[in-house]
Structure formats: structure tokens, C-alpha cells
Amino acid sequence: MSIDPGRVSDPSAAPLPSQAVARQPVKVTPREYRRAVRLQARKVRRVIRHIEPWSVLKISLIFYLCLWVIVMLAGVMLWSIAVGSGTVDDTESFIEELFALQEFKFNASQIFRGFAIGGLVLVVAGTFFNVLLCVLFNLISDLTGGMRVTVIEEETARQRPRTRPRRFRWPAWNPRK
Questions:
Q1: What is the tens place of the pLDDT at every residue in 45-86?
Q2: What is the dihedral sign for C-alpha 149, 154, 155, 157?
Q3: In three state form, how does the secondary structure of 22-86 look?
């Protein structure tokens, strides 16, 4: 593996300015190569002074809607398992005996309609409270100067070894051809 990191291994063999064009790449070991291209990280302190309420609204709404869909699907699956295992029928007969009723049945469509509407109300309420907390944070950070956070910034890409670009040479001009 050979790279030219812009240095010569022997300082006494450094090319003179007239010889700078003919510089050869230096051989390096794999260990030196990894050290040269290692990703760097540094601790940086940042201050959060303002959060956009519009961004909080969008993210909260999407988050709570996804949560609502997950809970609805889990409810449907649990209900179908309960019906399949006979738990719903056993519960209905227990309630009939407990309260001395002639007939008692769970109305599944009405239960899930109420469950869905209640979940949507909670989605809107949760989104509203998140935006309200965002506005409250912005007001408080104006008074206190924000919130200080220490983060680690890492390089996202490996550096390629430096190579010298080839020098363009004009072709030799021969007027006899």
C-alpha cells in the first residue's frame, strides 16, 4: 500500500524545488494508514435556546398517530384471541349470573368505536400539550439563556489518502509530422 501523505521518510532525501515534480509516494504500514484515516470525535457544548412549535406539532402528531394505530391493532388482536379462546363468552355468562340478567352480550363494534374515538381524542390532547410545553420552554429559555447540552461530534466519512494530481504535460510538438 502506498500513499503520499505530503511527507518524505528521509529528510535528507527531500527533493529540491526543481525535483518536486518527480516525487514518489511513500510506503506506509497498514497501522500508519489506519492511524492517518481514523475517524475523529470531539466533545462540544451546545445551547438549545429555541424549539419550533410547528416542528413539535408535526412530530408529536405523527408519533401519537403511530402509537394509536399500534394500540388499535393490539386491541383487535387481543379481542380476536379472547373470542377464539372463549374468554368473552365466559365473561358474558359470569356477568349474567352475577347480576341475575336474562342476557348480556358485549357489542364489539360499539366498544371499538369508543376505543378509537377516545384514542383520537388522546392523540389531539397529547399533541396540544407537547406544543404547549414547547412554547413554555421557549419562554423560559428566553429568561434563563437556554439549555446547555454536551454532545460528541464524530466525522461522518473517512478521509481518503492524499494523492498528488498528475501534472498535465503538453505533447511534444513536432513540426515535421
A1: 999 999 999 999 999 999 999 999 999 999 999 999 999 999
A2: negative
A3: HCCCEECCHHHHHHHHCCCEEEEEEEECCCCHHHHHHHHHHHHHHHHHHHHHHHHHHHHHHHHHC
